[in-house]
Amino acid sequence: MRGSGQRVDSENINFGNLGDLFGDLFSFGGGARTSRTHQGQSIKIELVVDFREAVFGVVKEIFLERYIKCDQCQGQGNEPGSKLITCNRCRGSGQVVQTQSTFFGTFKTAGVCSECHGQGQIPEKKCRQCQSHGRIRKRAGVKINIPAGINHGQTINVAGQGQAGEKGIPSGDLYVTISIRPDSEFNRQGNDIFYEQEISISQAVLGDKVDIKTIDGEVKLKIPDGTLSGQEFILRGKGVPYLSSSRRGDQIVKIKIKIPKKLTRSQKDLFKKLAENDL
Ligand SMILES: [Zn+2]
Ligand SMILES: [Zn+2]
What is the CATH number of domain 187-276? Predict the structure, then answer.
């Protein structure tokens, strides 16, 4: 099994989604590693952000324990100051030819040299910090730039912030899938924001100017006389920004008429008078 040492630690990270940490950028042949890898493994994580952070964008620092390039040998695997020498096993070719005798005859197959991992050279003295692997495990912060308008389930690709490969092979990428915590008042659907506004019976009947909460602060909305419960008003451009343009979605305000449950004696008298007038 691959994946030993694929643990990722951070208090910001949802651990439920860490099962799939294998890189998809590896080259495998027939289930065994037969060719050189071109990039380290990728890391996939889920990051939870607040409603407003997703709307306006935010920079988040997360902490990951992962392989990073060894800073002692710069990923080369040799102790600083020592040389690289030609690999004895493959004589510098990086490949070894194996002869296999089978029922059908003798086959020669070329494989990657296990001594130098196909590099053709090995360190004269192994780096003490990384034991010549060229990478070490370390917990370190990564800053994730979350753009304004990102939506739930979208993935940000942070190039080169995955696992460092062995022997100076470039790091894989970090894939951050965004999960947005819902807001108690604003209900986001795509780039539009749905919002419910309560008004009184008299405001609905007579009309009024009402303060409406938006993500930019309060705005005035003119409610015409005879407004019905459930009626919707659109505040253009008060929604969530689009990722790739300066456009914004809308805020849709749905009116809910408050029906009072407890009335004072004088309020009751007023409603009785309305009833006498067929209202
Ligand atoms: Zn090293
Ligand atoms: Zn070799």
Answer: 2.60.260.20
